[in-house]
Amino acid sequence: MEENDVIQSLAALAQPVRLRVFRALVVAGPAGLTPGALSEQLVVPATSLSFHLKELTHAGLVSQERDGRHLVYRAAFARMNGLLHYLTEHCCQGGACEVSAPDASSCPHC
Q1: Is residue 106 in a domain?
Q2: Which of 4, 12, 32, 68 could form an S-S bond across to 59 if both were Cys, CB 3.0 to 4.6 Å?
Q3: What distance in Å separates the CA atoms of residue 14 and residue 20, rounded to the nearest whole number?
Q4: Whole-model pTM?
Q5: Are 34 and 73 a contacting pair, CB within 8 Å?
Q6: Each residue's pLDDT tens digit in the chain (110 positions)?
Q7: CATH number of the domain where residue 38 is located
Q8: From residue 3, how far is each of 6, 54, 87, 98 by CA, in Å?
Q9: Is 14 helix (H, G, I), strand (E, B) or coil?
Q10: CA-CA distance, 31 to 69, in Å (whole number)?
Q11: Are 56 and 11 in contact (CB under 8 A)?
């Protein structure tokens, strides 16, 4: 992942509603959520939600797919994992880390 991509992703997540939307999509997994479900779950007006989904999509953190009459949004797990890898690539100067991280292998989407 390039530095500019990392900056774009972090900038997109550096807003409370967008962070909540992204986390809700991560929890939803590959099934994703419709804007209506997200709006209801997060208590965010549809017009605001549309703006935030556009920003997350532009940053590559969210994908959008049409399913009949509905749009379904999903977290872009590959992009999320690329961002996490970039941020932790040189953790502890290549040595064993003292901080134990959650086991990513237990997540079927990661």
Answers
A1: no
A2: 12
A3: 10
A4: 0.84
A5: yes
A6: 899 999 999 999 999 999 999 999 999 999 999 999 999 999 999 999 999 999 999 999 999 999 899 999 999 999 999 999 999 887 877 666 665 555 555 565 55
A7: 1.10.10.10
A8: 5, 21, 10, 26
A9: coil
A10: 16
A11: no
